[in-house]
Amino acid sequence: MSVTMTPRLSRATMRVLLAGLLQGLATPAWALPPSAAPRPPVHGIVAQPEPEAVIRTFVLQLVAGHTGQASAALEPGLEPPRPYSSWSRFFEALRGGQLERIEPWRKELWSAQDREYRVRYRVGTGRPVVAYVGIRAHGEGPWRVSSWSFAQQPRMSLASPVLEPEAATTVRASGLPANKVLRLSLASDKGRPVLATLAQGKTDPRGGISLTFRMPASLKEGPILQDRVQLRLETPDQRALTTVLAPYRPRLSARDLGRTYVGAGYQLRYPDAYRLRVTEGAVSLWAPGVSDPVVFLSVLPRPENARQMSTEEYARQFGPLNIESADELVRFEPFLLPDGHPAWLETWQGMKGRLGEDRPRPIVVGPLYLVPLDPDAQRWLMIRCLPGYEPVLDAVARNVTLARPAVR
């Protein structure tokens, strides 16, 4: 199925129609936030408070009775520490207390976005209270309190910031039962089902363990396509003692794309686990367990004012000619499809205003994969994705083939 548009549409009308294709999506398909792209760096962002400062502010706000402000430092959904039945009861217990010390704890298990501190405070004339506080940052977001307990809990960290297919890495953990055989399992980001056993070992007399494993690229069901997975240290009967959620960067090849869709002038291959939908004006791919489409394909005619450009010249100007706020080209990569036809990968950046905001924000547009469909390059296939699905996008886009023979 192809997208048919009259060649007499004005540039303004083209932008409106293109924007209309994306209405109703949870996140714009190609106008991504700056954090979704590795380059270029976005300047002018206010630095976030350091983890220790966040904990200190959190405790001092509770001591002063400012519970509403303190609540903002908690990770959403975090359970109150035992024995308190609610956060409000815990907050009330700290009112009027005195913070004595914050010290880094188990630094050997720290990662770039996950740390632990030991906090000592006193309430009234009572004995000092010691708490073990975990704190975590997601992406470029602020540090938030991710755990609070009055006894040291099992804790695990991953040596690599991102898991790569077939790459070896190590997990370390402490606070576990001593001299016990445990296994390291791979699960989905929701924790179930358990997908594979990665390694097995025995804790030392102090309850510590270090396990090295090789991250699989695929399982018997097919390639691993999730961008996050859970690693679980379990007892032999699958009781999880500690877990860590790890970013994963899938790497797909043509053999991982088992399904085929034939469009108007092109053929698309995509993963077996994905679903494809064709709607008026677009084709979309849906990842398993995701409620919104994650990869998008649109066929766009050249605007009238670009009909006389060469193919490469038009590719270099594709952003500002078709997409609002695509102002500066920051990545331009020509490549060949498997059948020899030319294609381009590009990323743009620009500024975009939002309703209710005084100043426009920087945005990143892309990555966009562009494929001219006809000999005179007047109809172009544009392929894009939501953040986190770039590996799937790259594999799908680089394995498109066209119905016409390539010019040799």
Give your account of this protein's structure:
With 408 residues, the protein is mostly beta strands. The chain has 3 domains: 11-43 and 252-402, Protein Transport Mog1p, Chain A; 51-139, Nuclear Transport Factor 2, Chain: A; 163-247, Neocarzinostatin-like (Immunoglobulin-like, Sandwich). The protein has 7 helices and 24 strands. Strands 1, 17, 18, 19, 20, 21, 22 and 23 form an 8-stranded antiparallel beta sheet that branches. The two termini are 28 Å apart. 29% of the residues are buried. Mean pLDDT is 85; it is low at 1-46.
Short description:
By secondary structure, the chain is mainly β. It contains 7 helices and 24 strands.
% residues in beta strands: 35-45%
Biggest pleated-sheet summary: 8 strands, antiparallel
Radius of gyration from CA coordinates: 26 Å
Measured between the Cα atoms of the first and last residue, the distance is 28 Å
User: Could you say which overall geometry the principal axes of the C-alpha atoms support?
Assistant: globular
Q: How many helices?
A: 7
CATH level-two architecture of the largest domain: 3-Layer(aba) Sandwich
Class by SSE composition: mainly beta
Low-confidence stretches: 1-46
Give the overall pLDDT as a whole number: 85
Any idea of the CATH class of the largest domain? Alpha Beta
Task: Give the beta-strand count.
Answer: 24
Q: Enter the CATH topology name of the largest domain.
A: Protein Transport Mog1p, Chain A
Helical content stands at 10-25%
The tally of structural domains comes to 3
What's the layout of helices and strands?
Layout: H1 11-21, E1 31-32, H2 51-63, H3 67-71, H4 87-94, E2 98-104, E3 114-122, E4 129-137, E5 143-149, E6 155-158, E7 168-174, E8 181-188, E9 194-202, E10 209-214, E11 218-219, E12 222-223, E13 228-234, E14 240-247, E15 259-262, E16 266-270, E17 275-279, E18 282-286, E19 295-301, H5 311-316, H6 318-322, E20 328-336, E21 342-352, E22 361-372, E23 379-385, H7 390-398, E24 401-402
Antiparallel strand pairs: 1-22, 2-3, 3-4, 4-5, 6-7, 7-10, 8-9, 8-13, 11-12, 13-14, 15-16, 16-24, 17-18, 18-19, 19-23, 20-21, 21-22, 22-23
